[in-house]
């Protein structure tokens, strides 16, 4: 996947939520903008590995300050994600990924920001990803997905042959949707970083970050990536998303049924409706979508939001249980079955179906 092209068309989760008028949009935006300072605290207390950035004010870059010149000389050839984080309310976060640090500077100038209202995070990036995960730790357990490749395959939901493997730990037993010992070992190693047996360290973390622990595991929403050349990084830690998913749990595979359409639970609930297939983004221009229909597509992208709002449920060929689109369906309270592989081939326009988001099943009526 070409990440530089992906980030030109995809939007952040905060922007997804803003477009549906989510009441916690501003709080989630602040949480996202401050995630690395939180991970720094965890790094200092429990050694959590994370993608530690080089930090500057936008003014320092605009004025080509000495410290920034030094960074360009010593690390200019390294790949990065450049994040422009607003320091005042109401301004958007801007980012690109996959360019060398020195080659990201023209993009910085193209944004035409007020350099006195932004800070800049030069985040390390690797083009040699091995595995990525996205998961929730809550009172019920640990639930998430792992994929071979970059984390964008999970957050955006677009993937090819490298399909996600779902995992679940209900505080008694680990379960995986596929038998792969390398994946199992990787996920268990990640979880171990969040297991804090030291009572004093848990109290210190709780005091500084106002968080909860379950069975001594730190609660929240997390994303990780392990690279061939840099090792494991936690790249996101979000307390608000963790709270939104505080009651979340998932089955490892969708319920099998005679209609041949099953997947994963993207959003719970059960409803009925007529199928409307809008297979690709190119079909959106001619799609005649009615209120109350079931949206069936390859994968939802931001352009699908008007249809997602009108739909009674969403079914996708691709996608994952914690992709941005699945989270949006959950917040819209629309049942969603994701990762079916074949919904756009098996279902037809006008089919009357029951969408069981809780069990990841689609049944013909």
TrEMBL record:
Keyword Zinc: no
Coiled-coil intervals: none
Keywords assigned by UniProt, alphabetized: ATP-binding, Nucleotide-binding
Keyword Nucleotide-binding: yes
Annotated ranges, domain PEP-utilising enzyme mobile: 289-360
Family: Belongs to the PEP-utilizing enzyme family.
PANTHER family cross-referenced by the UniProt entry: PHOSPHOENOLPYRUVATE SYNTHASE (PTHR43030)
Protein name, entry field: PEP-utilising enzyme mobile domain-containing protein
Lineage: Bacteria, Candidatus Magasanikiibacteriota
């Amino acid at each position: 996947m070409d990440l530089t092209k992906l980030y030109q068309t995809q939007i952040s989760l905060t922007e997804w939520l803003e477009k549906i008028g989510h009441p916690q949009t501003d709080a989630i935006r602040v949480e996202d903008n401050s995630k690395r300072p939180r991970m720094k605290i965890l790094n200092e207390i429990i050694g959590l590995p994370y993608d530690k950035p080089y930090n500057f004010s936008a003014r320092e870059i605009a004025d080509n300050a000495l410290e920034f010149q030094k960074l360009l000389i010593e690390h200019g050839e390294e790949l990065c994600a450049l994040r422009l984080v607003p320091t005042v309310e109401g301004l958007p976060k801007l980012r690109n990924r996959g360019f060398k640090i020195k080659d990201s500077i023209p993009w910085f100038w193209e944004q035409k920001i007020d350099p006195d209202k932004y800070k800049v995070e030069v985040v390390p990036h690797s083009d040699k990803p091995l595995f990525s995960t996205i998961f929730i730790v809550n009172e019920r357990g640990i639930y998430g997905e792992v994929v071979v490749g970059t984390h964008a395959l999970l957050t955006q939901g677009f993937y090819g042959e490298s399909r996600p493997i779902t995992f679940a730990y209900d505080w008694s037993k680990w379960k995986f949707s596929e038998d792969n010992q390398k994946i199992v070992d990787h996920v268990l190693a990640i979880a171990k970083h969040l297991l804090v047996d030291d009572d004093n360290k848990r109290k210190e973390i709780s005091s500084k970050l106002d968080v909860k622990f379950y069975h001594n595991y730190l609660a929240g929403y997390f994303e990780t990536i392990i690279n061939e050349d840099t090792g494991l990084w936690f790249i996101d830690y979000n307390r608000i998303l963790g709270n939104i998913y505080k009651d979340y749990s998932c089955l490892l595979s969708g319920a099998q049924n005679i209609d041949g359409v099953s997947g994963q639970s993207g959003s719970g609930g059960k409803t009925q409706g007529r199928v409307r297939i809008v297979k690709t983004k190119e079909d959106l221009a001619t799609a005649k979508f009615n209120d109350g229909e079931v949206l069936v597509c390859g994968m939802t992208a931001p352009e699908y939001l008007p249809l997602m709002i009108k739909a009674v449920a969403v079914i996708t060929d691709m996608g994952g249980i914690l992709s941005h689109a699945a989270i949006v369906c959950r917040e819209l309270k629309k049942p969603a079955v994701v990762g079916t592989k074949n919904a756009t081939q098996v279902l037809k326009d006008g089919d009357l179906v029951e969408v069981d988001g809780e069990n990841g099943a689609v049944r013909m009526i």
